[in-house]
Amino acid sequence: VKPYYYHCFNCHTQFSASEIEQDRHYLCPKCGKPEKNKPLHGALLISFDYQQLKKRYNRPFFLKQPAGQIWRYPLLWPLQPPEYAKDPPFQKIEWKELFSVDLPATKIHEIRVDTHTVKLLDETNNPTYSYKDRASTLVALKARQLGLTAVSTASTGNAASSMAGICARFGLEAHLWVPENIPEAKLMQILAYGGQVHLVRGDYDTAFDLSLEISQRMGWYNRNTAYNPLTMEGKKSGAFDIFIGLRGDLPDYIFVPVGDGVVIGGIYKGFCELQHLGVIEDYPKLIAVQSSGSNALIRFMQTGKFEYLPAETIADSISAGAPRNLYFAANSVRESGGFALEVDDADIVKSQKLINERTGILVEPAGAASLAGYIKAKSEGKIDPDKKSMILLTGSGLKDIDSLKRLHRRPDAFRAEVWQERYVGE
Amino acid sequence: VKPYYYHCFNCHTQFSASEIEQDRHYLCPKCGKPEKNKPLHGALLISFDYQQLKKRYNRPFFLKQPAGQIWRYPLLWPLQPPEYAKDPPFQKIEWKELFSVDLPATKIHEIRVDTHTVKLLDETNNPTYSYKDRASTLVALKARQLGLTAVSTASTGNAASSMAGICARFGLEAHLWVPENIPEAKLMQILAYGGQVHLVRGDYDTAFDLSLEISQRMGWYNRNTAYNPLTMEGKKSGAFDIFIGLRGDLPDYIFVPVGDGVVIGGIYKGFCELQHLGVIEDYPKLIAVQSSGSNALIRFMQTGKFEYLPAETIADSISAGAPRNLYFAANSVRESGGFALEVDDADIVKSQKLINERTGILVEPAGAASLAGYIKAKSEGKIDPDKKSMILLTGSGLKDIDSLKRLHRRPDAFRAEVWQERYVGE
Questions:
Q1: Which among A26, A378, B111, B303 has the fewest CB atoms less than 10 Å away?
Q2: CB-based contact, A360 to chain B, within 8 Å
Q3: pLDDT per residue over A184-209, tens digit each?
Q4: How many whole angstroms separate alpha carbon B348 and alpha carbon B403?
């Protein structure tokens, strides 16, 4: 029985679950090596026996599923008892337990932009209010399966608050490495969940490198995005929920905000799996949207070379000078027939306001970059506006009150008498 | 055809939908009159033809429903075409539109407190992150049905941010009357949705009275809680979702944070309707939890008399010196066989921490008052601890970052070198 296996994105070597998981590898044991301020070389991917699984997980099966209940297809997650399952400290995950960590049934909404309607995948009502929960729940389940009690992650804020919240739910200890300029609401959210915050004087890339070193030293299970293969696995669930939420009527374009490149990579992988399973024939073109202050993927796709530049953008969740999942993300964009484009912070802020005011969905700046990308791509004629577009709203605006404060002035307060005069007195 | 009718809680006079809705009454046309800093006299209730409805909405029907999809039983909401439906400016509400404003399928979680397990109704992932969305969606639908384009409400913060968000979704104008000490995150949330904020130099009670006067003058549809009968109607949906979420296995006690008393009244009304429909035989005992700084209901239930005292509590969402729904709330507690009890702000804060850290659900102080109430009731022997208890978590902690800041200190930031020395260097 080979329920799932790992393989290296770069050298293509295959590994069994026990080789990777029991020995606590994250990158390819042969060619992987994390380097300071660089995309990861030797990231591992997980594959399943799609020929077997397609008998069970076919198109009618997915069309019957409710969105968000991702554990209803347990064999598509790397949680099935692997070949080392009989050895301690391996712990069995009960399906009942899985069902208790479902995501809410994500709603797909719409927004009217000029004369066109765009679909929204709204992730702002997830358990900790961002897309990251899709990865964090899978990582927490794996930590428990491996008998580990502490999880560690570097983050600009969302991944950390997500991991802290999910760890609280699972009774795990959480260590979070975040840059000191983390938005205050996200910091407070982490602290409220009881997470151990390690505030780093430096940027996300510094926190990333540092956390790897110390997690390993301390024996904490590492959830760094892209580094831990389960992060992309968890994030592939977005593709399944898009298929389910749209009852199979997929969009032609999906606009995805890109920082480290794991969300876009995950969504691409999810669609590939749906294709392997015979559920869909073609998948949507994925369009990577970056802030012009954090555009490493765009530069890489133009030049074929990675060059490190410190990132600076109001959209903290997609601020990454060295996107760790760069190679797979670029591949995802290319293979899907999409492209990458950058938007200014000013456009991101404008789109954020548009979404908040037109849909009643409160998004953070990074979550609105996707709409800014759609508007730009449309105005530049890079997409066919009459084809179906969807954008991802990846995190809640309540997590970054400071960015709202830049947009909105606190109104003056008046005494009742003044109001009465103003409205009634005339 | 009499799809639903209104009747006065105090003088029991019945009114048709057209008498109340077309003439824009909120309180009983015969005996209702809002008074400054006083509970409302002449609040209107809505009743349906339960004898007819029970043929359709029976126990097996509710057991088949998914939680949160409250429009699947459309005849239990005062939105069915009433007798005046042919007259303009009445607008038809399409069922399709209703389905687009579903609440997320509320999850029922558990928390372990000492040796007992308590169920949680988690409302922190609603569209605008609080229980109030249940009322606001119904109010917005009614505004649209009446052909109105602006809605107005007084609020300590949650009702206003909820109404602003839901109005954004429906393309309605929102006017929000809030005390100037409103938590900053809630203020920013309202502004982000494009709501018109009227900041009042005074407390919630002042904002309440003022908003009534000015809404009427301006012709805005008023959503003031308890004043607009649809607020309690919307909030009754919590009872249906509790029944559905627990597959009919209702708790013996439900602890509800009480400010104006509309949530507890709504839940009571929901359970009464389930009883009228023959879905349940008995309903849970409802236990009203108030902060000792805002305990008007408790004093009223002890003395039989209402006395106005300005409210002051960290739990802003249940801060109300003059609970507008006082009489119905007291009735709900009494009729259900429950009781009211008060908890200190310090206990609320302790419970907030407990919930955040043990469940990964971020709650605001008011949302945690219910747990503080459970702990106190148990320690004082007021409930049988072996019977089933449930608590309501009414709003997200992200909406009140300031209260988290009082709990958690920002940690010091260190340079990478320092971390490395600390953990690795030895």
A1: B303
A2: yes
A3: 899 999 999 999 999 999 889 899 99
A4: 11
Whether residues B401 and A188 touch (CB distance < 8 A) is answered with yes
Measured distance CA(B202)–CA(B42) in Å, rounded:
26
DSSP-based three-state secondary structure for A254: strand
Q: What is the distance between the alpha carbons of residues B332 and B326, in angstroms, rounded to a whole number?
A: 10
Task: For chain A, say whether B117 makes contact (Cβ under 8 Å).
Answer: no
Say what the pLDDT of residue A92 is.
81
Reply yes or no on whether the pLDDT at B104 is more than 80: no
Chain B interface includes A36 (CB < 8 A): no
d(CA A241, CA B217): 47
B331 CB near a chain A CB, below 8 Å?
no
User: Rounded to an integer, what distance in angstroms lies between the CA atom of residue B200 and that of residue B207?
Assistant: 6
Nearest chain A Cα to B188, which residue?
A404
Q: Parallel, antiparallel, or unpaired: how do β-strands B173-179 and B196-200 relate?
A: parallel
CB contact under 8 A, A128 and B214: no
Amino acid at B414: F
Does the beta carbon of A99 lie under 8 angstroms from any beta carbon of chain B? no
Q: Which of residues 257-316 of A touch B (CB under 8 A)?
A: none
Taking only residues 155 to 194 of chain B, the set having a beta carbon closer than 8 angstroms to any beta carbon of chain A reads 164-170, 180, 184-185, 187-189, 191-194
ipTM given for this complex: 0.93
pLDDT reported for residue A383: 98
How do residues B310-324 score in pLDDT, each as one tens digit? 999 999 999 999 999
- ∠ Cα A401 A404 A406 (to 5°): 120
Whether A362 and chain B come into contact, CB under 8 Å, resolves to: yes
pLDDT band for position B71 (50/70/90)? confident
